[in-house]
Amino acid sequence: MRSGTACRFRRWTSAWPISTSSCATSFANARPSGASRTRKLVARQPMRPIFRPGRDAMILRTGGCRCGEIRYALSAEPMFHIACHCRDCQYVAGGSPNLTMVFPADTLTVTQGQPRVFKAREASGGSYFCGTCGVHVFSRPDKNRSLVAVKVGGLDNASDFKVQADMWMASAPPWHRPHDGAMQFDQNPPG
């Protein structure tokens, strides 16, 4: 695990929602790759400043859908890189784990178009997608609107993406393999 990963993980999970839907439920069984016991993460570090689009923002990443109708900009570095294996994400990703980078929601600005939203069930959060080409671009949990999970495939440059956590491994089919060096959770990370 890279230096600082546990601290970044703690910052991310302290804000993660707890609900009953698959990508937003509490993570009870945290364990690093190859470990059989639950691991308690206790590293704490102050949150870094959040940039506000339009005020003090600097565009750090851009992305959009396949057809170009939806475009967005992000004014912060990702808090965490995840692979979600929950059933909802398998639908979105066509059977694969859903690869996302988690950002503070107020650092995302839709610069072109108007994404449509789909909710799989009440209080599960919304998956935002292009109404023309159907590509899912990001999602926001209802229980914590301060976070946004941006789909890696829609980013113009995601060359630095490396999975830091595999979540919802309890829902993963046998061909979903955990990523080397990534933390594993049966559901969502604790937090």
Outline of this structure?
The protein is 9% helix and 27% strand.
Strand and helix layout:
Layout lengths: L4 H11 L14 E3 L28 E4 L6 E4 L5 E5 L2 H6 L5 E7 L3 E5 L3 E3 L7 E4 L6 E5 L6 E5 L13 E3 L15 E3 L6
Parallel strand pairs: 4-11, 11-12
Antiparallel strand pairs: 1-12, 2-3, 3-6, 4-5, 5-10, 7-8, 8-9, 9-10
Reading side by side through the largest sheet, how are the strands ordered? 1-12-11-4-5-10-9-8-7
Relative strand content: 25-35%
Poorly predicted runs: 1-53
What characteristic shape results from the CA principal axes?
globular
Write the CATH fold name.
Answer: Metal Binding Protein, Guanine Nucleotide Exchange Factor, Chain A
Name of the CATH architecture: Beta Complex
Can you summarize the main beta sheet?
A: 9 strands, mixed
Amount of helix: under 10%
Q: Give the CA-CA distance, first to last residue.
A: 20 Å
- Average pLDDT, rounded to a whole number, is 75
Q: Count of DSSP helices?
A: 2
- What structural category characterises the helix and strand content? mainly beta
**Strand segment count:** 12
Give the radius of gyration: 16 Å
Topology order in helix (H) and strand (E) letters: HEEEEHEEEEEEEE
**What's the level 1 CATH class?**
Mainly Beta
Tell me the count of domains.
1
What report would you give on this structure?
The protein has 191 residues and is mainly beta. It has one domain (5-185): Metal Binding Protein, Guanine Nucleotide Exchange Factor, Chain A. It is built from two helices and twelve strands; from the N terminus they run H-E-E-E-E-H-E-E-E-E-E-E-E-E. It has helices spanning 5-15, 87-92; strands at residues 30-32, 61-64, 71-74, 80-84, 98-104, 108-112, 116-118, 126-129, 136-140, 147-151, 165-167, 183-185. It has a nine-stranded mixed beta sheet with strand order 1-12-11-4-5-10-9-8-7. A hairpin with a 6-residue loop joins strand 9 and strand 10 (147-151). The two termini are 20 Å apart. 40% of the residues are buried. Residues 1-53 have low confidence and may be disordered.
